[in-house]
Specification:
The protein is α/β, with parallel strands linked by helices. The chain has eight helices and eight strands. The chain is globular and about 45 Å long. Bound molecules: D-xylitol-5-phosphate and zinc ion.
Amino acid sequence: MKISLSILNVNYACVYDSLKDILDEVDYIHLDVMDGEFVPNISFGPDFVKSIKKVSTKPFDTHLMIKHPQNYIEQFVKAGSDYITFHYEADCNSMDVINEIKSYNVKAGISIKPSTKLDEIKKYLPYLDMVLIMSVEPGFGGQGFMEESIEKVKELKRLKDENNYNYLINIDGGINDETAKKISEYVDLAVVGSYLSKAQNKKENLEKLKRI
Ligand code: DX5
Ligand code: ZN
């Protein structure tokens, strides 16, 4: 299980300083983009992503929690995203957005909220490079892991193995050294926010996750 470090619950005045101990040790950087419409919180936009790109060589896993992802794909491509994941529940045509992301040679991902059934996105699975299962209600870091998400990643793995699909299975929300044990055999990577960014000893917590 690889680790995608979420840049959300951090001190924005000194993002680099607060994360520099682990920036090179994680596998991906997860950028949580929120518009205050799709979720009740506002985070940051493409300029912020661009500035983080200057201090990290890791692949960028951009998570768009925005109502109209179709209007912003190009900007997040230019900002340096390697993966762009949008929400199935957003106000857009999912297949069009997948195609647009791929037209820039960027990997395309789809995410579903805890209340959305996996069945609803099954038809897109052959075209996806990533599926992101939300294990908390999107909008805020530091929430508790929702156990129902375990079944979803299990099923995604079964479908992937059975059909030889290419997508990476990713999970987002409430991951720590306890909850990671419940999903590590099914996912390719996991998003980790506060368990790392709020830790006294970030390296130690990262080591604990890597051992799982
Ligand atoms: C929630 C975000 C997550 C979040 C993860 O809407 O998508 O990426 O920041 O943070 P933790 O690990 O604290 O749940
Ligand atoms: Zn996220």
